[in-house]
Amino acid sequence: MPSLLGLDAPLVALGWAMVIARDAALIDSPPSPINVAKLGVLFFGVWSLYLFDRIHDSFHVEISTNTPLRHQFGLKHRVSLIFVAIGAAVIAALLLAQIDDHQFFSRGFFIAAITAGYFAVFRFLKRSQARQSPKFPGKEVTIALCFTAGIFLCSETSPFQNSAGVLSLGLVFLFLANCLTISQAESDFDRSHDSQAFFSHRSHSDFLLIALTVAGLVIGTALLIDRKLVISACALILSSTILLLTLLRMGNNPMMVQAKADGALLVPWTFLISSYLLSHLS
Question: Distance between CA 250 and CA 246 in Å, rounded?
């Protein structure tokens, strides 16, 4: 259900931002407070973007045997999703108006500009061009970079400082592996509907995906050994492991790979919920 409603992406973003903010607060002295408004902007902003993207796709797809379930849902419930997307965008805007942080806005504008460029280049302008696979996974890399940058921005943690910089690289690898795993599983669908997907007209490459997930595992392990950002490191290790298992079992049911691959990125919520329960039960 979260995948059908486009909730997996905002839940992933919010979970990682909260875990990183929590880890960073444990390192800082005194601990830095978590800005709820910024986290809200992240959740509702990402949700509205993903819903509008799903709605845009619904005008170009037809239900067939290789149409992913989320696109079938988007086509059948387009009008309802439009109202939900508008509502999420309005809430994000209202929360944004409560934030008084010039640095947040300047960095956020940069991320927003790249995101707008992504939609212009990979979602709108390229749709009518020749059907051929790109030589470089530009679409997937852009998603991974923007997603990581947004998470660190709203967690109020710099992605370029010490262990946070290493973690940001691990997240880029993780999100890139996630996008490419979905692209490979849905290559038959993308061949007709999304020529900019890396595997739309390309032979499958398990080696590339395995290398990316293993890179996430290595980075998470290094952070854990160094005892820096421990919760985030554990979440990165578990997410990379689950994504790797999803990749290895992809052939069983490719139509469910997207939900499973995105589900692997929800691991931070297990730590957040466990921490909440332990703090209230002790």
Answer: 6
Report CA torsion sign: 143, 144, 145, 146: positive
Chain centroid offset of residue 161 CA? 22
Mention every residue, 6+ apart, whose C-beta is less than 8 A from residue 184. Answer: 199, 204, 205, 209, 250
* Spatial separation of the C-alpha atoms in residues 196 and 200, rounded to whole Å: 7
pTM: 0.91
Tokens of 183: 């692209």
Retrieve residue 160's tokens.
């370029």
Q: How many CA atoms lie within 13 A of 2 on its CB side?
A: 15
Q: How far apart are CA 146 and CA 157, in angstroms?
A: 15
Q: What is the pLDDT of residues 62-114, one digit of tens each?
A: 777 677 778 788 888 889 999 999 999 999 999 999 999 999 999 999 999 99
Q: Using one digit for the tens of pLDDT, what is the confidence trace for 201-244?
A: 667 677 888 999 999 999 999 999 988 889 999 999 999 999 99
User: The tokens of 108 are what?
Assistant: 């956020």
Q: What are the pLDDT digits (tens) for 25-48?
A: 765 545 566 789 999 999 999 999
